[in-house]
Amino acid sequence: MRPENRRRHLLPWAVVGLWVVVIAVAAMFAGKLGGVQRDEAVDYLPASADSTHVEKVRQELPGGETTDVIVVYHRDGGLTAADRTAADGQLARIAAEQKLTAPPKGIPSKDGTTLMYPIASAAPTGPGADKEAAQKAFVEDVRAIATTDGDEARAGGGGSSGPDIASGLDIEVGGAGALMADMESVFESIDGTLMIATVLVVAFLLIITYRSPFLWIVPLVVVGAAAVSSMAVVYGMVRAFDVVVTSQSAAIMTVLVFGAGTDYALLLVSRYREELRRVPEPYEAMRTALRNCGPAVLASSGTVAAGLLCLLAADLNSSSGMGPIAAIGVVCALVAMLTLLPAVLVLLGRRVFWPLIPAYGSEVKQRRSFFAAMGSSAARRPVAVLGTGLVVLGALALGVLNLPGAVKQEDSFIDRPESVTAMQRLTDAYPDQSAQPISVMAPTDAAGTALDTTRTLPGVADAQRGRSGGGWTEIVVFAKDAPESVEESATIERLRSALGDETYVGGPSAQQIDLADTNASDRLYVIPLVIVAVLLILVALLRSIVAPLMLVAAVVVVWGASMGIGGLVFEPLLGFAGVDPGLALLSFVFLVALGVDYGIFLMHRMREEALKGAEPEEAALTALRSTGGVIASAGIVLAATFGVLASLPLVMLAEMGILVAVGVLLDTFLVRTYLVTSASVLLGRKVWWPGALSGPPAAEPVPERETVGSGV
Fold this sequence. Notes:
The protein is of the alpha+beta class. It is built from 20 helices and eight strands. Helix 5 crosses helix 6 and helix 8 (247-276) crosses helix 19.
């Protein structure tokens, strides 16, 4: 066998063999990623905020970080003596079985309908201590005692709580600890649900796209290998560098791996199919396909990764941590699609395309495509098309004025869990005092003065000295107003102003204030950074300034329109009572980075035609006709994978999925098809300014060179 033939035969097998080893090793670690995910408050808070500092100090106080819950007893007609006795019995059992920081004390409401018992348990400390598991176990144990005793008594079987509890008594467990436990339960269900739903959606769309009983399996298996590899790499980073991985960032990474990976597969397979008609050997056909569209895939993935890495500049821990994790997912998808996918396709040969096998020497049946018709209409009336499109997108963007305010913790769930309903009941029963404490952390030598100052401030219902240690003393403050209300927010701001820079104010409500402020600040830094990073890559790639500016402006307009659509559907149609504070920034990063992807493929094909000597209008129409179908398929797949997030039970993920999915579809079927094409026709050769293509056409066509995205 000649050396060249031997290489053709052995290289694909070597690549597949290497990936088998990689997957075998990665599988041992990928499944452990869920065990190292962290969803504590500090993992989602701003690194420099007051509330973050409070949480860190609380962990160092005697007893460590506490799990604070409130057991709520309520009867519409008023609590009876038997209800109170039974409640005392249940709390006595809880105190006997759990290590509480203080004896439980009931606080009755003024109307006599409700009785609440605030209690707290210290988290475990020391090497290997699993705080999240212990916090969740504490909440579950408290609920088991309260609900089981109540259920047994109501059923006539008595219960260890004492006297029978008559029907009509509602028992619920709320508080910050219960809310975090409910959030953790939701996060635990996300990984499996998200993976299964994403696989099913991608498989369905690939079957429709390829119309083959076999071909769709190949990219799906390869993207699965990329997903396993990315999870293993992230797990290794956690162990080696103590990188924080939240359930939110892990979910986004999964979606990006499947969405971006499938997009790259669609582009490569499309080019490979085309080359099989021109080249007799699959190996050579794949080499040509990789040589032509491989650089385009590299450029697009590089743009996405660069945009995501800009999140490192964010002060918000959840945003800055998501950037590199999501970028790892994109890079793993890229590597798999440029190595494993080509090797498998070459080994399977032409038969993988059955029944639509591309025969060597055959020609594609020419017919007027949907995108050719759209391009022609844009070329005939470019000014009207461009103007109408911008007006439509601008009108949609006005919907941002209807966006609800920042989402409250109680509104973070699609279906309200027990912790949320319990806190709502407390808000109604205790209108003169919030049931959610504000935590003030003061230097111990100044704690007395801080306590006295706190008690004199308007909006403060009560304040008590808490734990002390390490030079700090905690003061527990209860506001007069409902949690996360405008009035309570004003009280928190008064506390921060009156107590000075040496004292920190935190707690759940303060955390929400810091989240909103930090996200607003992060947008001022990260959004320009993303725009500059993407522009620099596009300028280097397209050798133009005008074309990159046009592409970036297009995706920014898409983002604005998507946010406007969110304002029209989130609260009016879907009932979302608020918007996650990080939604604007994260959706901008995803839509700009991912949207520019499609612009790269379109503009590079347009540049290729210009290099061949085509006039600007002809180049634009040829590019749209050649790339429109593949870009449409890729856009639908990417939108569908992000749309899977909308099925999850958390408002923040559902909103993210909806916005990105809508934005990708707008970009695919309106902006790329009509607006970019019509703008390119209007600008003519100026679209390539200041490059050589912006000048008058040469007497002879510019010699064709290897270009990115050819034939995509």
